[in-house]
Amino acid sequence: MNIFIMRHGQAAPEASSDALRPLTGQGRDETCLMAQWLARQVPVFDRVLVSPYLRTRQTWQQVSKHITGTQVECCEELTPNADADIAASLLLAYGDLHRQDNLLVVSHMPLVGFLVESLCPATMAPIFVTSGIAKIILEQGQAPVFNWLEGPHNVRPHYEQPCHLLGSLG
């Protein structure tokens, strides 16, 4: 199974609550860029788990324009200060049932970094840029393997198709 862990796109600094912070134009653009890049590798996500916060749901909306998701669920265990070990246990349990699937998790810092560390204890919690995506490979009978972590700043110079508002990425 391939587990893709994604941090939401850039969000507005303030809203009436943290849970209601929307994506900015740049957040939509960088998410679009990452989704187009990832679509070359992943044709479909068998399951998508998304934090209930507005910015993560909007991030998934942008990704879903390029990669479909068969089953999509909001998951309270993926909020910014959730317990990474509980979230990792949830992913591993899903992995035990669905070995051949591609799973996308859309969440927040610091949870995304701690989730990688919890799944792959030999890896220190990485720092995710906004719209950053990590890939973890989970094979039966083996420990999860941290494969890569990419972000819009790495992908953009190598990607030829423009996004809708890509000028906002600098």
Fold and architecture overview:
InterPro entries: His_Pase_superF_clade-1, His_PPase_superfam, Mito_Ser/Thr_phosphatase, SixA. Pfam families: His_Phos_1 (PF00300). Keywords: Hydrolase. This is Phosphohistidine phosphatase SixA. This protein is of the alpha/beta class and 170 residues long. The protein has one domain: Rossmann fold, CATH 3.40.50.1240. Helices cover 31% and strands 22% of the residues. The protein is built from five helices and six strands, in the order E-H-E-H-E-H-E-H-E-E-H. It has helices at 25-39, 54-63, 84-97, 111-119, 152-155; strands spanning 2-7, 44-50, 68-74, 102-107, 133-137, 145-150. A six-stranded mixed beta sheet has the order 3-2-4-1-5-6, with helices on both faces.
Jot down its keywords.
6 strands; His_PPase_superfam; globular; His_Pase_superF_clade-1; 170 residues; 22% strand; alpha/beta; Rossmann fold; hydrolase; 5 helices; SixA; six-stranded mixed sheet; single chain
